[in-house]
Amino acid sequence: MKAFFATLGFSILSAVVPIFNVEVYLVALATQIPKSAALPVAIAAGAGQALGKVLWYHGTAKSMELPWMKRRMESERWKRSFEKWERRIEERPRLAAAFMFSSALVGFPPLLVMGAIAGALRFRMSMYVSTIFVGRTIQSWAILAGLTHLFH
Questions:
Q1: Looking at residue 125, what is its pLDDT?
Q2: Structure pTM?
């Protein structure tokens, strides 16, 4: 239970402050937990990452309302580009979800970048959180299950 809550907290921190790497944390943790704890701890890691990235989403969404950002968005080039990406996301929500899931699962495109884009373009929150949660849970489980198998 201690590993679950510690992982949840560290995962939130690592989602918000990129210098704290959750994958490195999970590698170290795998040496300390039994095989049976891999899935619950992976779920904590996925939940923590999803919760932490919600802060990035809202932070970026709010930054779009700042005066200097509004001035930048007034340029015709910026408007065209922004509207093009908005349209793409609205017209192809499954593709947007696939990109977000890929980002969460394998880190390409980088999840930090995808979180900022999602906030700016106002991805559906349910899609945003669920794809990050599932992708990061699978990634965390793969790390933990593989390494706990080696260490125990």
A1: 95
A2: 0.89
CA dihedral for 141, 105, 110, 68, sign (positive or negative): negative
Q: Into how many domains does the chain fold?
A: 1
The rounded percent of the chain whose pLDDT value lies above 70 is 100
Task: Please give the Cα distance from 109 to 118 (Å, whole number).
Answer: 12
Q: Print the domain residue range for 106.
A: 2-151
Residues 73 and 82: beta-carbon distance below 8 Å = yes
Q: Compute φ and ψ for 108, nearest 5 degrees.
A: -130, 125
Residue 140 and residue 26: Cα distance in Å, rounded? 7
Residues 132-149 as b/e (b if ≥16 CB within 10 A, e otherwise) read: bbbbbbbbbbebbeebbe
